[in-house]
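Deviation from plan, reported transparently: PPS complex.
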Amino acid sequence: MGCSGCRVRFNFGKALSKVSVFFTMVLIFTYFFYCLTGLCDSAPRTLYSQRASDSDYDILEDLRPSPRLLLDASERNLTASADAQRVYAPAEPQQSASDGEKGSAQSSGIPVSNTFGTKRFPQAIIIGVKKGGTRALLEFLRIHPDVRAFGAEPHFFDRFYDKGLEWYRNLMPRTLDGQITMEKTPSYFVTKEAPGRVCTMNCQTKLIVVVRDPVTRAVSDYTQTLTKNPGLPSFQSLALKNVSTGLIDTTWSAVRIGLYAKHLENWLQHFPLSHFLFVSGERLVSDPAGEMGRVQDFLGLKRVVSDKHFYFNQTKGFPCLKKPEGSSKPRCLGKSKGRPHPQIPAEVLQRLRDFYRPFNHRFYEMSGQNFGWD
Ligand SMILES: Nc1ncnc2c1ncn2[C@@H]1O[C@H](COP(=O)(O)OS(=O)(=O)O)[C@@H](OP(=O)(O)O)[C@H]1O
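Because the crystal trials were delayed, the predicted structure below was used instead.
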C-alpha cells in the first residue's frame, strides 16, 4: 500500500518533468522559427541600437511623468546632441549583413535574400525637406506592418553614392513580399545629382516631400545650427545681405532650401509629378491621422495608421504615438524635434515672407496644392 503510493508520486514527478521538458522545447523551437523567418529583425530595438542607428538623433521620448523615465529621456538627449556634433557615417554593409550574404550580393547582383526576407532597394523615399517633419512621418509610417524602414539617414544619393548600389541595398531591412522598404534623407531634395541617381536605381520610386512654411523652416534650421554652435551670428545677419536694403541672402542654405519650386523643377526633369506626394508639415502636426491617410493611399497601403494611434502630448506640444514600432509605451519624438525657436524681429520675418511669396505660388502651381503659407 505504502509502496504503491510511492510509485504514484514517482510517476507523477516523472510526468511533470516530461511536461516541463516538452514546454521548454516548444519555447526554443518557437524562438528559432521566429528568428528564421526574419522576424527577429523587427523585434523591439534596444535603446543602444537606437542610439547607434539614428543619425539625426530623433530618439523617441517617453514624456509620461515618471522621474526615472524623464531622466532616461534627458540622458538619451545628451547622446542626441553629441551625435549632432559629428557627420553621420552609416554602418558599413558587413555590419548589417553576414559575409555569406555579402558574397552573394556582390557576385550575382540579385536581391540579397535568406529564406524569408529580402533586402530590397526602397520603393519609396522621403526625400525632403530638412526640418519639414520628415522624422515624424517616418516614425508614424513605421507602425504600419507593411512598412520596413532604415532607421537612420543613409545619405546615399548625396554623400555616399560612390559606395555603390549594393552597399545601399545592404543597409536596408529585410522585407517579406508585399512589404515596402523605405528610408528618409531630407537633403536629397536639394541635391542636384540626386534625381538622376535615384532614377538610375529605379525610375518607379515613389517620392515623398514633407513641406513646411519656408520661413518657419528657415528659423527651425537656424535653431538647430544654433544648438550645435551657440556663437552663431543672429538670424537676421545671416538671412539678409544688407540690413538697410533688406536684400535676402540666397546663398545661405537655410534660405535656399525653402525655394521649393526650384528644387522641384530639378526633380521633374527625371520623374513625373505623379511619382510625388507632398505632405504638409503643418497638417502632420494638426491632423496627423488625416495626413497619414493620404500617405498610405499614395503608397498603396491599407489605411492601418489612424487617429487611434495618436494622442496630443501637452508637454511636448506635438502629436505623439500611443504605441510606436517595437514598443508598447506611448512615445514622443526626442528633444531635437519641436525645439522652441528664438525670437526673430517681425520685420525680418515679413521680409522673408515677401521674398518667398512668388516661389511659394509657383510651387503651389507645380504641385497642384495650396499650402496656405501666405
Ligand atoms: N509629432 C512631432 N513631434 C515633434 N516634431 C514634429 C512632429 N511633427 C512634426 N514635427 C516637426 O518636425 C520638425 C523637424 O523636422 P525633421 O524631422 O524633418 O528634421 S530633420 O531634417 O530630420 O532634422 C520639428 O521642427 P522644430 O519644431 O523646429 O524642432 C517639428 O516642428
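The pocket of PPS is lined by residues 56, 130-136, 186, 220, 223, 284-285, 318-319, 333, 337-339 (CB under 6 Å). We consider this an acceptable substitute for the interim report.
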